[in-house]
Amino acid sequence: MAASDTSNGIISPALFDQYTAKWLDVVSQPDGSVLAQAFLVNGKDRLLFVGFPIKQITSLVSAVGVQKIKARFLLIPGADGQPHFSLALFATGVDDEIVSAYYVPDQYWTGAARTPVLGEPVPGDLAAQWMANWKAAPAVTSAQFAYTQGPLQGYNFDIKDFMTPLFAAQPFGDQQVRLNLGLHEYYAANSSGAGPTQTFGLVLRVYSAGQSVSTSDDGFYDMATPCPPTH
User: Is 2 domain-assigned?
Assistant: First the structure.
């Protein structure tokens, strides 16, 4: 799929608006076939996580006045002419103004390879459960992106969720920040107890090639604020 429109992984505000609008259009359709297809890589394997080069992340968190890092869901046209899932990261300031460019991933993975991580605070087994829920889901459906105030458009992270792992990642080299796709499984406020709700989420972690850690030592960031209701 087309990961970006420029060599440095940045898309224009106009393309950001176009791709986010396409996401809202498709995720709101009763027929979920286009949505399900958008999460397939090469038309066959479900997307499990995306990666951003560490240089993109250091540029992102270096934006003057940054308070939050926001992730927004996109549907980007691929070489096959079909829309494919992606996401954009950007920084906002104290008054919610945008203070950075829009960054998109440069890597898309379908294999759940063991990856070393830096950071915390979500327990590794819990994060692994969310990721396993996504991988094992029989289908991708609009219901997995339903939220109390409309379809999920993305998540908002505090700047510390991106900044803290960078301390452990020094010196910077070929590391990546990976956003793994997951499903939170829980009983919603209006639930009768008949069955759990599954809601799409993102699990943030830093990957550094050549290291290895046990599952119990894995550290993740995930406690982000969904959008909507926040902007």
Answer: no
